[in-house]
Amino acid sequence: MGIAKLLFASAFVTLCLNSLPASSCQSVEQRFKFPNSDVYLRTGRSTQFHYQVMKGSKILKTITLENAFSDAKLELLDSGSYALKTPDTTITFDLIANNDNVVHVRVSRTVPTGSQPMDCFDLDIPNTHWYGGPEFKDHYWPVEKQTLTNFSYVTKEFENMGVAERYWLNSKGEFYYVEDATPLFIEQNSPGYENKLCFSALSALPFNTRAEKVTFVYHVGVARNAKDAHMYAVKKFLSHPVEHPDERMVAQPIWSTWALYKRDINESVIRAFADEIVNKGFKNSQIEIDDDWEDCYGALTFRQSKFPDMKKLTDDLKAKGFRVTLWIHPFINKNCEPTYTDALNKGYLILDHNGNPDTQWWNSGTNEAAYVDFTKPEVRTWFSDRLKKIQEEGGIDSFKFDAGETSWMPDDPVLQGDLSLSPTQMTRDYVRTVGAFGPLVEVRAAQNTQDMPIFVRIVDKDSEWGWNNGLITLITTMLQMNMNGYPFVLPDMIGGNGYDDKPPTKELFLRWLQANVFMPSLQFSYVPWNFDDETIEISKKFVQMHEDFAPEIIKRFKLATETGEPVNPPLWWVDPSDQVAQSVYDQFLLGDDIIAAPVVQEGAVVRDVYLPKGEWKDGNTNEVHEGPKWLMAYKAPLDVLPHFLRVQN
Known about the structure:
649 residues; alpha+beta; Beta-galactosidase, Chain A, domain 5; eight-stranded antiparallel sheet; 13 helices; 22% helix; globular; disordered N terminus
């Protein structure tokens, strides 16, 4: 039976004015029907202006418009839309879809600069769970647990927000999508907005502040369940990859110099690293030469004192079975001459409205660097040509592209193109430029680039266990990225990055590796032989397990390119009505048929495992369980990864 028969017979929107007393609001109601449909707008008055998405007598969602409205008039337009008009603004309601599967309404208005329109809805905690939203350093799941105050919705280094899709989904089958031209700020669970998520459109930095009008457009959709809602949003807004990344990067580990060596790299270090990998009996997809190979930051030339003959080095590495990738960033430091002056004189750097290019990143001092302006077509060509040159000269197979977030730009930047898309157009143009270098590419920033056939790396994790950017957030961040339409997730370094001179312990290293097994790729930097022989043997076991399941990962990659389904969905994906599964944060799926339940608590040798409906075979014991059920205190010593395979009937 379709959604219309299951839930309701008609749909409409209720509107109230906050300028009138509640007694007046309660006494006045009118209902307006969209032409040739069963969808209605119903107007009324209460203490606040709001509308409700409904069918029949069932209220699906109430959204409050925090602006004061007066003398509002609802008019049916020739287009079949409804317009709510006040002396200052017009809100237009467009019925986009109305069928057995989904009801979808577009809500739009344009207001004068200086206005502060804000629309809010109840998160309905704890009855409803939420997914999507931005990537975070301390990434809670479901995302209604986050608190945000006056939060500008752009990619930024702050809180590791490399992925910033304007998309939210909940367990009741509702989705919300805010269009890119909206200068979006959000409030979530902040003082005065407890248990609410609020969208506002403000002419304020980091967005363009020079427009005369501000656009505020978002979409509200309701489907039968969260899975149906998400798949509709994928087709309508998020899109899906057109191809998938390199399959060898899935099956065999990436080996990076970063976490282990940081900037202390040279030719002899790389050779010794490669020899150790081979001699210890580990396979590889590639070796990644990370930070501090350049003459200076931005030169894109090899420092001869460290790498006197890069082509000879890469030839020797390839003879050992390695491909070679290189770390790249989008900055030029001021002391990197003549590159800096040449780029500045040619207009290739991002300037603020005073003509100042100064910025700072993690490898520069304050105001000692500039950000390459990828919003200019000629700059994209210039940057790409320089990369092609070092590929040819150095025998480099591909690249790891770092940064790309908008927060590295000077305040109030001057960018090219549609200014309503500023500043996130910078992220999109950067990612699309570097993504052209092929299926071995990895990036860490993304915004409206779900169609790219490249890995999106989770921003650096710390070598910790908990919610402070530790192991547990590896899983929750991966789930968030999948539900934002980025299924090709690169989980970054096994064991974390070891910042503040805190490398991973043996236990953390092995549990981190286990958590990666059913994710798309393994990336080592800290190495098993830095611990002991047991760590080497356990690591080989799980590296082989990952390779054994690589065909299943690639199968799901291919499905993602066809339909947009996630590679690693949350546990509720196989049964969206399962209220227990809706809040599970430390388990995940590979496709529809494999459950991973890694141990993510320090010192734990048992864990509780939840199985959704279906028959599930224990991957360690072959015992079959009928879900939904909890397996309490499942035994998981250091060499055991709890995982379950669907029994195929």
